[in-house]
TrEMBL record:
<feature type="binding site">
    <location>
        <position position="10"/>
    </location>
    <ligand>
        <name>substrate</name>
    </ligand>
</feature>
<comment type="function">
    <text>Catalyzes the conversion of N5-carboxyaminoimidazole ribonucleotide (N5-CAIR) to 4-carboxy-5-aminoimidazole ribonucleotide (CAIR).</text>
</comment>
<keyword id="KW-0658">Purine biosynthesis</keyword>
<keyword id="KW-0413">Isomerase</keyword>
<feature type="binding site">
    <location>
        <position position="13"/>
    </location>
    <ligand>
        <name>substrate</name>
    </ligand>
</feature>
<protein>
    <recommendedName>
        <fullName>N5-carboxyaminoimidazole ribonucleotide mutase</fullName>
        <ecNumber>5.4.99.18</ecNumber>
    </recommendedName>
</protein>
<dbReference type="Pfam" id="PF00731">
    <property type="entry name" value="AIRC"/>
</dbReference>
<feature type="domain" description="PurE">
    <location>
        <begin position="2"/>
        <end position="152"/>
    </location>
</feature>
<dbReference type="InterPro" id="IPR024694">
    <property type="entry name" value="PurE_prokaryotes"/>
</dbReference>
<dbReference type="InterPro" id="IPR000031">
    <property type="entry name" value="PurE_dom"/>
</dbReference>
<dbReference type="GO" id="GO:0004638">
    <property type="term" value="F:phosphoribosylaminoimidazole carboxylase activity"/>
</dbReference>
<comment type="pathway">
    <text>Purine metabolism; IMP biosynthesis via de novo pathway; 5-amino-1-(5-phospho-D-ribosyl)imidazole-4-carboxylate from 5-amino-1-(5-phospho-D-ribosyl)imidazole (N5-CAIR route): step 2/2.</text>
</comment>
<comment type="similarity">
    <text>Belongs to the AIR carboxylase family. Class I subfamily.</text>
</comment>
<keyword id="KW-0456">Lyase</keyword>
<dbReference type="GO" id="GO:0034023">
    <property type="term" value="F:5-(carboxyamino)imidazole ribonucleotide mutase activity"/>
</dbReference>
<dbReference type="InterPro" id="IPR033747">
    <property type="entry name" value="PurE_ClassI"/>
</dbReference>
<feature type="binding site">
    <location>
        <position position="40"/>
    </location>
    <ligand>
        <name>substrate</name>
    </ligand>
</feature>
Length: 164
């Protein structure tokens, strides 16, 4: 079974990254969670990144704030797809430093980047990657998206009732 690794630079990132964890579980994707700091535990970062593909992971979601080097460094060391989640942290410049650090990767080292604090979309994207070769996960994604559509339709009906 394919797994997603959700990693972050510190425990302070967990409230944002929880959205990725929750949606992955909702979509039936196995998930492991860890703290891997690019700056404070570089040896762990190297070990994790170099072995992730042999440890059953299919996708890595990496969230980081401030200078946000974690997603790019993981992508430089791992052959797996990496999805970066810029996190607006206490030491960030309104989150823009994190967004640009993750988004502006050099050619050859891609990191898919979601919106600031957009961990839920990172989880959905990871599930879609896995779903491209796993029909059970694909069915879960189709159902999830159908649920989104139904929610909008019901909301539109409520709005119409309110203003008629």
């Amino acid at each position: 079974m394919s797994k997603v690794a959700v990693i972050m630079g510190s425990t302070s990132d967990l409230p944002v990254m929880q959205d990725a964890i929750d949606i992955l579980k909702e979509l039936g994707v196995a998930v492991d969670v860890d703290i891997v700091s690019a700056h404070r535990t570089p040896e762990k970062l190297f070990s994790f990144s170099k072995s992730a593909h042999t440890n059953g992971y299919s996708v890595i979601i990496a969230g980081a704030g401030g200078a946000a080097h974690l997603p790019g460094m993981v992508a430089s060391l791992s052959p797996l797809p990496v999805i970066g989640v810029p996190v607006k942290s206490s030491n960030s410049i309104d989150g823009w430093d994190s967004v640009l650090s993750i988004l502006q990767m050099p050619g050859g080292v891609p990191v898919a980047t979601v919106a600031l604090n957009g961990a839920k979309n990172a989880g959905i994207l990871a599930a879609q990657i896995i779903g491209s070769s796993n029909s059970d996960i694909m069915d879960n994604i189709i159902s999830y998206k159908e649920g989104l559509k139904e929610k909008v339709i019901k909301g539109a009906e409520e709005v119409k009732k309110t203003f008629q």
